[in-house]
Design goal:
- The protein is an alpha/beta fold.
- The chain has two domains: about 130 residues, Four Helix Bundle (Hemerythrin (Met), subunit A) (Up-down Bundle); about 210 residues, 3-Layer(aba) Sandwich (Rossmann fold), CATH 3.40.50.
- The chain is about 45% helix and about 20% strand.
- It contains 13 helices and 16 strands.
- A seven-stranded mixed sheet has the order 6-5-4-7-10-15-16. A four-stranded mixed sheet has the order 11-8-9-14, covered by helices on one side.
- It is globular, with a radius of gyration of 20 Å.
- It starts with 6 loop residues before the first strand and ends with a helix.
- The C terminus is likely disordered.
- Bound molecules: 5-S-methyl-1-O-phosphono-5-thio-D-ribulose.
- The site of 5-S-methyl-1-O-phosphono-5-thio-D-ribulose has 18 residues, from helix 2, helix 6 and strand 9.
- 5-S-methyl-1-O-phosphono-5-thio-D-ribulose (MRU) binds next to helix 2, helix 6 and strand 9.
Length: about 350
């Protein structure tokens, strides 16, 4: 089945598919400078929490690889600049910071072992490629755990795009749907368009259509209508950050879907890697919410659709844990009370992760 490739490390640089141009055009860029990678993340050439993490890891690798530093000390100081530049791109997705932390840890390990700059550079490239490889294995494991919760047949709903484009693997929420579909469940996906950036209409509809999975595109204000009709068996979305108590930040609009799901007795699930957990914060109140440009609300693909008035654009909202029936991860399924189950999965540890 078709799997989109949003990002790839090559000898020529980091290749990215421009997600802003989909579905009309499939345009790829090759980046050789980490500042270009940071700009690509900020401007949504690449988006989706895990894919942002992969891009950040590759951005660090590019920065180290192309550094003119002549000593480990000089490279260390440049490493900090590279990492800070990438950290300032998008604030909500914790995968970005997870990937930067991981690259930093590897840099510290390698520079203790050797002062050979060529060897250090090679190890950083290897680490970034490893981050990408692991995302693929992670998605497949999430898909297997989550598929069990999908109905044998009928409608399921998602939000935004948590597919291959958003992870570099098979996707988290769409990975669950894909695995369930491949197992023979006769699913039909309701795809809310996800204003204002239209990740549902432009990206999820494109991915599902190319993958041969039946779908119906709906506008965001049709969600309640379809849930009330009683034919949706499950809702599964991705996540950008999950607090210790299970409160989950995801694309704006997810909260209202979860509330409507509860009202209509439809189970609402999150599919996300353990790297999305932020156990340092007790609840969703502490999740930083990215404010994007109001022009993304007043304009549709560059065309003005509203008068020149004030517009708000919080890019994410927080769904309280009480609306979430379960969280599918690569290490298993978390359930209430999330304070316990998330902590258990987080410390279920490396041994499990490496057997993926
Ligand atoms: O602003 P975006 O497109 O990066 O937001 C993406 C989402 O909200 C996704 O649902 C989330 O990152 C999970 S992607 C597997």
């Amino acid at each position: 089945m078709y799997v989109a490739q949003p990002i790839e490390w090559t000898d020529r640089g980091v290749i990215m598919l421009d997600q802003r141009r989909l579905p009309a055009e499939e345009i790829f860029y090759t980046y050789t400078d980490y500042r270009e990678v940071a700009k690509a993340i900020r401007e949504m050439v690449i988006r989706g929490a895990p894919a942002i993490g992969v891009a950040a890891a590759m951005g660090v690798a590019l920065g180290v690889l192309n550094s003119p530093a002549k000593s480990v000390e000089a490279l260390r100081s440049e490493f900090t600049d590279i990492s800070d530049t990438l950290a300032k791109t998008r604030p909500t997705a914790v995968d970005l910071f997870w990937a930067l932390e991981r690259m930093k840890r590897r840099f510290a390990e390698v520079t203790v072992q050797t002062s050979d700059l060529a060897k250090i550079k090679q190890e950083m490239v290897e680490e970034a490629r490893q981050v990408h490889l692991e995302k693929r294995a992670t998605d497949e494991a999430i898909g297997r755990f989550g598929a069990e919760f999908m109905p044998r047949e009928g409608q399921v709903m998602t939000q935004c795009n948590a597919g291959a484009l958003a992870t570099g693997g098979i996707g988290t929420a769409l990975g669950v749907i894909r695995v369930a579909y491949e197992q023979g469940r006769k699913l039909h996906v309701l795809v809310p368009e996800t204003r204002p950036y239209l990740q549902g209409a432009r990206l999820t509809a494109w991915e599902l259509h190319k993958g041969g999975i039946p779908l119906t595109l709906i506008t965001d204000n049709m969600v309640g209508h379809f849930l009330k009709a009683g034919k949706v068996g499950a809702i599964v979305t991705g996540a950008d950050r999950i607090a210790a108590n299970g409160d989950t930040a995801n694309k704006i609009g997810t909260y209202q879907i979860a509330v409507l799901a509860k009202e209509n007795k439809v189970p609402f699930y999150i599919a996300a890697p353990v790297s999305t957990f932020d156990l340092s914060i007790p609840d969703g109140e502490h999740i930083p919410i990215e404010e994007r440009s109001a022009a993304e609300v007043t304009h549709l693909q560059g065309v003005r659709i509203a008068p020149d008035v004030k517009a708000a654009h919080p890019a994410f909202d927080v769904t309280p844990a009480r609306y979430i029936a379960a969280i599918f991860t690569e290490r298993g399924v978390a359930r209430h009370p999330y304070n316990d189950s998330l902590r258990a999965l987080a410390s279920a540890g490396q041994s499990l992760a490496t057997t993926l």
